[in-house]
Amino acid sequence: MNKFILSEEIQEFITSNIGADVAKLALQKNKFPAADWTTILNQIAAKQKAKTKLPIWSNTSNIYYPSKISVEQTSSEKTAEYKSKLVSGTSLIDLTGGFGVDAYYFSIRVNQVTHCEINTELSEIVAHNFEQFQVKNVRCLAGDSSEILATLNQKFDWIYIDPSRRNDAKGKVFMLNDCLPNIPELLDFYFRFADKIMVKTAPILDISAGLSELKNAKEIHIVAIENEVKELLWVLEKNYSKEIQITTCNLAKGISEEFTFKYGSSSISNYSLPKKYLFEPNAANMKSGGFDEITSHFEVEKLHQHSHLYTSDSLIDFPGRVFEIENCFEYNKQNMKSFLENKKANITTRNFPETVENIRKKWKIKDGGNTYCFFTTDANNAKIVLLCSKLK
């Protein structure tokens, strides 16, 4: 950590160049010989990234940023605030502290937070930033988290872990034992120091696969921002073996769409042909797999077992997009020529044999406009098209 970066002159330069082309700035001569030019440019790029993702950091003076990739990989303030609402008590230890965004929000809810980070420089950066925030209840410890736990040898109310993948060799499929720390291997060790553990994983982890590795799961939270799933949160409790609660949350435009159900429940969907309104679950609900539970909790019926679209004659508050169906017709050449060929429309496919790209190309449909088209399969296994106007 180069403390010359925190000089008033350099900080003013960094702030005044937010939004500038960093690649062009790199061609300029270093105006500040006491500091490394690449480090200064990194501060600009990282602060620029933090502007929307981490507004508290961006709007606080004398914040020191690690590499841009560390900022990209850290939790956003929105997801950190969400997970902080799941914890309480007097003590929490964050075993994979990183840039400290989660620890900051935990410190609002918990009396004493311990931030562990194996990277000594990053630990120093986080400690400095907490001083700027005047946060007094977070201690930053550098080193291996398992060694820190064993050395402290104290009981915490919560352990929080955000494991990182060792490599990308397996592509999109990975298991928790492919990560560091290896939580399945260390779980009994962790439970010696806390009865409650929260694990954050990337959204590509399959829920059933995660449950095969994590014992004592009590809750799973699927968190999306603006309909993009960002995190899976696994709440584990020592010796817990009862029903697992799934909560989906989509944080969008000042609202929070939430839906809760029991994992593995025996709900059975009701089916119907399209009615007046169409409902499309948000991304968090799609990830949850709770498609049958939706018809049990909301006054809607499903179009088809595999379509994951719902319909009703009543307009209800629904966790996802809501449309009014203006027309419904069978997918064939005559109907497509009459209603959509050479038109402008937003297209979605659900349980349909053709891709959006092929449909656009085949019928010369331009993207955009106020018409929303759903190409899907109905309860009679017919391929249909729904022309809709968006209500939410």
Automatic annotation (TrEMBL):
UniProt keyword terms in alphabetical order: Methyltransferase, Transferase
Metal-binding is among the record's keywords: no
Claim: Transmembrane helix is one of the keywords in the record: no
Domain PG-1098 ferredoxin-like span(s) in chain numbering: 277-319
Residues of the THUMP-like domain: 320-390
GO biological process, one term: methylation
Origin superkingdom: Bacteria
An example molecular function term from Gene Ontology annotations: methyltransferase activity
Name of the protein: Class I SAM-dependent methyltransferase
Origin species: Flavobacterium paronense
